[in-house]
Amino acid sequence: MKTTNMKKLIVANWKMAPQSLDEAKKVFSVLKRAKFSTKSLRVVVCPPSVYFADIVKNYKGKTFLFGAQNVYVNNNEASTGEISTDMVSDLGASFVIVGHAERRMMGETNEIVANKLAHVIEAGLTPILCVGEKERDSQGLYLRFVEQQLIECLSVLDKNDVHKIVIAYEPLWAMGAGHTAVDNREIHQMSIFIKKILVSQFGRKIGMEIPIIYGGSVDADNCAGILKEGEVNGLLIGRASLNPYTFVDVLKKLS
Ligand code: PEP
Fold it and tell me: Among positive and negative, which fits the CA dihedral 254, 227, 149, 125?
């Protein structure tokens, strides 16, 4: 995916919600009826995998693309409880969120994330690699933390494959209930920092073309400012995407 003339990528991460297929269908039917333009937007919805088949079957069309929230690191059938890239790809996914902060909190290491990243690319899907610090400190150690995440997670990728990824900057301290989004200027600074690392690792041509999106307490009020002043290529939206009316507001404001 190239950033040049790229449509803004808006990714809805439904997380482990809603709690019934009926509810999930209701959320999606509101989205489906909404009027907004996709001229400048690519909208990706990532429902829980148990709803994936129903949602995609009922709502496939030109407006929405679909993504998985996670996949297993390989396609080995002896992996009880896991979901493979082949499965989600077969159902119509084109994106996979990899290394989400909530999964890292459950023990997903940079090494596991790196292997998933390579596996997702090999399957022909676009990985959205999440990076971000747990907290900020006044000495700037959080910058080293993000740098290390990037370097270690991208370490196993073939240089020719690096341009196939999307990077989501999602600091844990700005995500979820009770938190607020990162200041737009700081989002911009972080996106420059990430770009610098990518350029130093993979060269200017590749490094500058990798899309960087932001996630963490995005809502209908702050979405446009984050895109404009944060100068990012898109947004990863959790809670606000679960309320279809709020999510439609976001899409209307950006389209
Ligand atoms: C997320 O789950 O990726 C996320 C950004 O959550 P929220 O928008 O709820 O902070």
Answer: positive
